[in-house]
Amino acid sequence: MSENKNDITRRHFLKDGLWAASLVGVGSVAGFQLNKSRKNNTVWQIDPYVCIACGNCATYCVLEESAVKCVHAFPVCGYCTICFGFFGPEPVDINEGAENQLCPTGAIKRKFIEEPYYEYTIDESLCIGCGKCVKGCNTFGNGALFLQVRHDRCLNCNECAIAAACPSQAFRRVPADKPYLLKRVDHT
Ligand code: SF4
Ligand code: SF4
Ligand code: SF4
Questions:
Q1: C-alpha angle 179/14/6, rounded to 5°?
Q2: Which atom of ligand 3 is nearest to the CA of 131?
């Protein structure tokens, strides 16, 4: 059955609106780090196309709670009913029960939008940056979930402890006025 045009338009509007909202969230923290990075006008960031979600971001940061968090690129997301970033490899059922979830802290929220689409959002206060969801989404899904250094948390260490432990050299310094490396629909 062909898709109703209004449904498609509505869904695209929804995706674009959510993505814009997430950018506002990212942009709102950029001001914090500008003060912290005056020394060299650069900050640490993860290239999401190089990161292999090894798990080190959760454990190597000098902060007790890592400065790295999961971010969701809504325009890249398929709004899948079965999300490989949300569900563990062998879920008991396809619902939000804790026993079905991959995330160890329950940081990903799943909400029904319209048949057959579900929206997934990250509660950053719960995310520990382990990258388990990122690996699942990158392996079996569209790769909409990725890790970023959040600059409202990062100390902008001269030598980032995670960068030193990163097996794929995904960390690099970026200009402080463009502190995030986001995933894009048109990336090749
Ligand atoms: S699986 Fe890990 S990286 Fe993904 S949302 Fe949960 S805590 Fe964050
Ligand atoms: S620069 Fe320091 S605070 Fe920031 S992510 Fe790296 S180790 Fe953590
Ligand atoms: S240490 Fe590097 S490869 Fe591992 S999760 Fe962090 S950025 Fe990705």
A1: 150
A2: 5
